[in-house]
Amino acid sequence: MAPAIELINVSRKFLTPDGKSMTAIRDFNMSVAPGEFVSVVGPTGCGKSTTLNLVTGLAKPSSGEVRVMGGPVKGIDPRIGFAFQTDALFPWRNVIDNVVAGPLFRGKPRAEAYEAAHKWLARVKLSGHETKYPHQLSGGMRKRVSLAQTFINEPQILLMDEPFSALDVQTRVLMHDELLRLWSEAKASVIFVTHDLEEAIALSDKVYVLTRGPATVKSVYPIPLARPRVVEDIRYDKAFIEISRTIWNDLRDEVHASAEREAA
After folding, report:
1. What value does the CA radius of gyration of the chain take, rounded to a whole number of Å?
2. How many angstroms separate the CA atoms of 142 and 130, rounded?
3. Which of 31, 85, 157, 198: disulfide with 3, CB 3.0–4.6 Å?
4. Residue 156: CB partners within 8 Å, gap ≥ 6?
5. Which segments of 128-196 are extended strands (E)?
6. Whole-angstrom distance between the N-terminal and C-terminal Cα of the chain?
7. Closest by Cα among 206, 196, 243 to 44
8. pLDDT tens for residues 55-87?
């Protein structure tokens, strides 16, 4: 079966404000199978988010090839869903009107869109909050709305850029379990960018470790932990601790080298 997402020998260069050429990623290779959950970790500023922009079509490779569902990337693909650090809720719309925005924009009949929105809000445990506005919600509740807002469009590919980094530790763990539950039902292919190595391991089938910028793939680690997973429990599993130690030993040199370069 063809990969859902594939980056083949990709490099991405861009001009800085002072007119200099800068390379974000180089000779970059990645493959995500249908239904696979892949995380990407690396030093700050190494180009992790650039990989997502290439998959969406918001950025084009300077060289190499990016493929989605077996074909080249051509503009914004409706099969792709997004979840980023800052939620995309409209502050002037209540919860249910935020969730139906995507289906209505895609042309779904109004009654059908609202019926689906009610079902998705129930799935993320927000029934009864439909008429509240974003400013009336906690951070965790806003993230649940964002998940409903994303999954209601039935994405085949889900791109996530540190979506839970602003949450407190306890809420993050709850959101991890919520995400895994929704993902296991949707069977979407996921690229999850994070600075949190434990988060990457707990969620993923595979973890990519990137070098300091300009980034390329240093290592790829399959995560042989059984599913379904309960994130608040799995972190204490002996196998989880061993995998964390192994990947951190690989990642640590890149993080330290990146920090030293920034301090120079």
Report:
1. 19
2. 12
3. 31
4. 4, 69, 79, 80, 188, 189
5. 157-161, 189-193
6. 47
7. 196
8. 988 888 999 999 999 899 887 788 999 888 777
